[in-house]
Amino acid sequence: MHPASDDPGTRTALAALQVGALRWLGGGAIAVVLGVLLGVATVTLAGEDGRRVPGAGLAVLALVLGGLAAVVVGAGALMRTSRWRRALAGTTWRTGQLYVAGPAVLSFEPDGGDDAVHLRLLSTAIWRTRAVQALDGAGVLAAPVGSGQWVFTAEGEGTLYGARAIARGR
Length: 170
Known about the structure:
Shape: elongated
């Protein structure tokens, strides 16, 4: 059997996730730099004439804090993508059916009679949750990526979804 990471669709999906993470990271860094530059320009203007620039302080604060948040999101997504890439290199895809029990509550039933794995979707983005809900009853490919986490996709989806294993009865 070939590792899950050898699948062309998986490689493409991982590359897309990495690009998205880098976009968050780069956008956040640019926002922080712009915030600092705006702060310096505001201080320079205020120092020369003593006039105030309305809203500049709020804009600086928004740029710096928003940029820092984006950097954290991007770094986290980059680490998750790297962790998934390593884990998928050491495992194979398991085929099975995905059943949706709620907005983010899932059950993966592997082909071959193995026990069902109850999962909770990691993402809370509405578009992602709806995309997973559309897979209710569909055949999917899933793989454990360690620490009770699973990654799954469906043929033609073009993306990977992360989920955490949960105990029965939750």
